[in-house]
Amino acid sequence: MCSFSLRKRTTLGPAPPGSAEGRAARPIGNGIPRLIRLAAVSCGRSESSAGARMEAAAAAAAAPGPKARPEASQAPSFAAAGPGAAFRAMLCKLSARFDPSRDVGPWLSERAAAEREGSADAWGNHSETPLIINVERNGNVLYTWKGPEEYTNVGLYDNDNKKNQHLYTFEKDLRVISCSINHEKTLLAISFLQTAQEEKKFLFQTVPKCLTLLIEIHPLNNVKVLKAVDSCIRVQFLYPITDKKSSDSCLLLISEDKYAEKLDIRTVREGDRVTIENLSRLSKERIADDLMWSQWDMLGQRLFYIVTKEEERDVLNCIQFYPNKDFKLILEAPLEISMADIRLRSVNLNYSYYQDQETIPKPLDVHVFTTDTGSLCLCYSLANVNSKEVSYTVAFLHKGYSKTYTTTLEEMNSLQIKELVFLDLDSYVAAYLPGQFLHLLDTQHPDLICHSFFLSGEDAKMNLLNAATVFSPSKSSVLDRSTGKIFTVEMSPKALLQFLWKSKSDNDQLAALHCLLLHVGSTEELENQIIQWLSENASSCFAFDPIQELIFASLHWKVCLESSDLDKLLPYTSLLNWKKDIPGILCKMYIISLPSLKVRNFKGFWEKLNMNLEYVKYIETPLHFSHKVLQREWYKLLSDEKSAARTSYLKSIFENTKKVLSSLHMWETEERTAPLFQDEDYQQSLLTGLMVAQLKEHLLRPLQYIGKKKIDQIAVDYVSKLLGLISRMMENVWRKYSPTSLAFSFRQPEKVNEAVVFHIMCRILQAASGMCLPLPPGFHTRHLEVGMRCFPLHTVLQYIDHGVLHLTEKNVLNLWKELDNTEKNVKLKLSILMRLPQAIGCKVCQLWNHSLSNSAIARNYVKLLFEKLSSEQYNIPFMDRISTRIEFLPLNYLVTTIVEMERQGWAASLEETNMNARLVEEVALKHTTILLGL
């Protein structure tokens, strides 16, 4: 189930497939989907058994579903795996960036061997197992291990040179809860709890539960006690994003007593010796009070925290730290949740193993995730009360709404229910409940639920993880505290393609396409793999058009790589809404308050977040390019009368077309097999140039600051890439099915591949016409040639009448040259002639020396003649207006009759007479038959 409470907002954009707005652009017609299905019926009228087999293949090609796949066709090898293929567990590809047994174990063994006079492998001793404490911004890992006599050692794994370094040794057993080292590796801050043994030693004395120290370690020098309290203290050095070397370090202290402080520490270097200047009086500054929850963003150097205000909503705040030791409160966001009476939790400031030993239930788990595109998400989940259902909420603060997802669990023992965890996978937020589900929620485009993954069962497994103790220390990173391993997580293109081939539901297929093209990144190799899937599965998608999704998502990725300003101006999907339910998922949507930014000058993430917020605040309708407007302008151009202004406008449009085709040929270097770009198509050339003109107009208003020349180039590149992508679809189809040479002829027996190719081209045509997209020159010519080989004449003509097949000038001229004047071919030519536009018909008639053609010439000539007579002055002799004498007796007699009438003064009264051109023609022809005695 899936229900929404949507924001009442006027939307504008591309029409969904099958809607009235998304139907075929004129002159293609509105009957394409129905006529594609009619292919099966119209093919079944042959008397020969071979023809019947051909018809059955064509019917299979035309019908929806995977039956169109010929026996010789095979899916790519990666998609041919059985039901137990590894893709089920590897949509999120994990690779161990840090493994204690691999990266620390050998070094510890060497140390133990040296200290214990070469004793056996010390790594096998549990007391030597390192425990991960922190991961710094540069990737360095801080860990502790127990040495001889249960001493606590602190070590560092350098991520750059892959070496380990011993930092400090405490000659007693400590429970380290927080630890951090400065960028220069000269200062170590550490916070630890007294063990039970230590507490017994001071049984009759007041001893602080938590001790926080600042230690000089280059070389080992002074130790300063920063805090000696009963509440836990988290420590974290700042890592300024700068190349300048500084003698200053900044240390954050986050206390369970609900405050945060910043210490400025200045060091003095004397040769190789580094000491703290004025160690007894460190500069200290309170930066936050009354905080209930905090999260450290190491990459962005930001501290998110939540404060509770009496009689007001809780507020999410964020402090941004800068390289010059300055910091500012930059964000405030009122929340819909309450943190009252919840013990302070610090996220990403405590990787301690001892936290996993806590038995206190966590009534509310909160995480904040950001992306480089300006997305800001607050995720939280309540403690499980009902073991049959799990609910969690993701507040998309950059969009102004939140979504609460409720998932029905499979039957299981309530004791097996583990904690729901949130993972930061950059473009996705992962909600993971081990053994139950893995939800990958799209943070960049969260509007439609179908752009997210909702996986369960085998598909939801994440190999290599002990999922009860995992979390994300940074983007696309997972730390498994039970093993100490740090994994880099990425979406695997190979696994996503396998998932695409295996999936049967529309939402799974759309989520995979969306992820591949918009987040993994659209490359030519990846697009070719998706096109292979499309050629066999396009008819199996009912809720969306996969060809349209491929086109829009691929173009969006490529163009937005060049300029991020285009993200909200160009469409990334063809869908306006999604009405289908996702099994087992209930989704409720709520409007929430937008965050406010307290600083005016923005850079990086904050600048993009501000753009997202401004878009939500002030834009009533989406700014995406409207294909409805393009379609309306195209209709207008096709129907407008000729005028000087229109002629000038058309000239500029065809100049745009020349630029597109020129740009296209520049990067189309390899030899192509699909016979495209070999002839001209007036209507498609008109649509191509018009789309460039409309794109320019659409982009010019919001992007004036980048210049008209740049905008012109963006528009040309966009349409060039569009035609190139469709051409590559045709290339893949041609290579896969290898249709034979398309000589002009009627339906051929035993040509299964042509039927499949015709069906795929119909789907491409339907996708393009539904969104008013241009097609490469020659597409309609090839389509008609394939159709004539697949279907009988009456079916081909029906397709032409309904706009499925288009008559092009080259196609018809070649047809006239190739076919002789047998009775069957004359019938075909006459049927074609009756359907030709006048411009093409005049050229064709000149090539056909036949009475039917001569009759057509006579009719057209007389019509043109009288149209001119009705609009011109009549002081010019009639014969002077005839450039050449046509050798056709009825027409010559007609001309002679009219000349004689002109001499008798008939033309002078022509304006007052309502002349009927067809009547005059019939009279002339009748007189001719009388004179010749016919």
How do the strands and helices of this protein lay out in sequence?
Blueprint (H helix, E strand, L loop, with lengths): L31 H11 L6 H14 L29 E7 L1 H16 L15 E5 L5 E6 L5 E7 L4 E8 L4 E7 L5 E7 L2 H6 L8 E8 L2 E10 L3 E5 L10 E8 L3 E12 L2 E4 L6 E7 L1 E7 L4 E6 L7 E7 L5 E8 L10 E3 L16 E7 L5 E7 L6 E8 L4 E8 L12 E5 L2 E6 L3 E6 L10 E4 L13 E2 L5 E4 L4 E7 L1 H10 L3 H16 L2 H14 L8 H17 L22 E7 L4 E2 L7 H14 L8 H13 L4 H24 L14 H19 L7 H30 L14 H19 L8 H12 L2 H9 L7 H10 L4 H11 L4 H9 L4 H21 L17 H15 L13 H16 L2
Parallel strand pairs: 15-19
Antiparallel strand pairs: 1-30, 2-3, 3-4, 4-5, 6-7, 7-8, 8-9, 10-11, 11-12, 12-13, 12-14, 15-16, 16-17, 17-18, 18-32, 20-21, 21-22, 22-23, 23-31, 24-25, 25-26, 26-27, 28-29, 29-30
Structural description of this entry:
This protein has 934 residues and is α+β, with helices and mostly antiparallel strands. It has 22 helices and 32 strands. A hairpin with a 4-residue loop joins strand 29 (477-480) and strand 30.
Write out key terms for the chains shown.
five-stranded antiparallel β-sheet, six-stranded mixed β-sheet, about 950 residues, disordered N terminus, alpha+beta
Question: Briefly, what is this?
Answer:
By secondary structure, this protein is α+β, with helices and mostly antiparallel strands.
Mean pLDDT: 77
Tell me the structural class.
alpha+beta
The N- to C-terminal Cα distance equals 79 Å
Radius of gyration: 37 Å
> Widest sheet: strand order?
19-15-16-17-18-32
Weakly predicted, low-confidence segments:
1-89, 120-126, 873-886, 906-915
The number of helices is 22
Sheet of most strands: 6 strands, mixed
Q: Per DSSP, what share of the residues sits in E-state strands of 2 or more residues?
A: 15-25%
According to DSSP, the number of beta strands is 32
Shape: elongated
Helix content: 25-40%
